[in-house]
Design goal:
Layout (H helix, E strand, L loop, with lengths): L1 E2 L2 E2 L1 E2 L5 E7 L2 E7 L2 H30 L7 E4 L2 E4 L3 H13 L5 H11 L15 H9 L4 H20 L27 H13 L1 H13 L3 H5 L6 E2 L4 E4 L20 E4 L2 H7 L17 H14 L7 H14 L4 H8 L6 H7 L4 H14 L1
Antiparallel strand pairs: 1-2, 3-4, 4-5, 6-7, 8-9, 9-10
Helix pairs in contact: 6-7, 7-11
Length: 367
């Protein structure tokens, strides 16, 4: 039973529940029966929708004040003559706030500070030459790439809304320096050794082992709760992401990140011990994300394995999938990668169940 895209799920304890996200927070609605949960969901979902609509109207009223922004005519339609900074603020509040995690919002605010010289320039006068010079003057490959990505998103929306006559980011290539940083992954032999080392000290390294076996992100790992495990169907539900800097914001990276993936054989053996504990308690809630990276670094260094980040354990999982010839669409479904087109999404939702089962067998043999 669903309502406005939200599916009501039966809990292991017998009651029914559904989770909603609003303003970076997770709201859980419970019911003793599916019908009761459905009625409560309707009330909460409708309230959230009304609140969002009211907020949007307030934002439109605030930017429509003539004293704030000058009205101009663009291609026969009315539009605001935004400066670069004014458009960034409008783009952020209208298209990102409430749709991405607070950590991402803060990252955008930090990134735009590199473009301070362009703040007062009318957005329609910002050229590709201006942007290229500004980006090239930045020291740091990752910073350049973040700025390039921010500008690309901002100007795409501006062009689609006829705020600018053309999109200057279309002819600016992604910074070449960034390509030097290749994504690393353990070889099959190194992965086997890594698994062996983790199994030898599970009390400490179990979270690292789950990362490499399931290919999940650090935040998704830290958000895992027993009610995310379905041992009958051998599946793992990913619908939250935890960051110690934003403990109340459990929103995942994007909508594709909310998914159900197979729980592989070795993972199931590791997680069975959590079956009867508090289903709402985070199983790795006692561990800080920074600690995991420290443990990983020391483990790899002490055993002659290549230096690697926690996220590169995820790359290792994806690499093993490719090596086994698993279909790209199945990999995307498992790891929660966003799709780039409507056609891809349509195909993605109709993956052959038989093909997926064969792929699960291939990965179980690897583990």
């Amino acid at each position: 039973m669903t309502y406005k895209g939200k599916t009501i799920t039966k809990h292991q304890r017998g009651n029914w529940y559904v989770r909603l996200r609003h303003n970076g927070k997770v709201i859980t609605v419970y019911g003793r029966t599916q019908v009761e949960a459905y009625e409560k969901l309707k009330i909460v979902a409708d309230k959230i929708e009304i609140e969002k609509m009211r907020l949007r109207l307030q934002q439109l009223d605030s930017v429509a004040t003539p004293s704030v922004l000058t009205i101009a005519t663009v291609e026969g339609s009315t539009a605001k003559n935004y400066t670069f900074k004014e458009w960034f603020d409008e783009w952020l509040s209208s298209y990102k706030v409430g749709n991405v995690r607070q950590a991402t919002i803060d990252s955008f605010k930090k990134t735009v500070s590199y473009l301070e010289k362009l703040y007062s320039v009318p957005i329609n006068e910002v050229s590709s030459l201006m942007l290229s010079k500004t980006i090239n003057a930045i020291v740091g490959c990752r910073a350049k790439d973040k700025i390039h990505n921010l500008c690309r998103q901002m100007f795409l929306i501006a062009f689609n809304n006829k705020i600018v006559d053309s999109n200057p980011t279309l002819i600016i290539p992604r910074p070449k320096q960034y390509a030097k940083f290749e994504k690393k992954a353990l070889t099959p032999e190194q992965q086997a050794r890594f698994i062996e080392l983790c199994l030898a000290d599970l009390g400490k390294y179990e979270p690292l082992l789950v990362c490499v076996l399931q290919g999940i992100r650090k935040g998704e790992l830290l958000a895992l709760r027993p009610n995310d495990f379905n041992f009958k169907e051998n599946s793992l539900r990913i619908d939250e992401s935890y960051d110690h800097n934003y403990p109340d914001d459990l929103m995942t990276k994007n909508s594709a990140s909310v998914r159900t993936m197979p729980m592989f054989d070795l993972t199931k053996q590791l997680l069975l011990k959590y079956k009867d504990i508090d289903p709402t308690k985070r199983i790795y809630g006692h561990i800080h994300g920074t600690t995991l990276n420290l443990w990983l670094g020391k483990l790899l260094k002490a055993n002659g394995l290549p230096r690697m980040t926690l996220h590169e354990l995820r790359h290792t999982f994806i690499t093993r999938c490719h090596e086994k010839g698993i279909d790209e669409l199945i990999i995307q479904k498992w790891v929660g990668h966003a799709k780039g087109s409507r056609m891809t999404k349509a195909v993605y939702t109709h993956i052959n169940d038989e093909d997926e089962l064969k792929s699960i067998e291939l990965l179980n043999k690897t583990a």
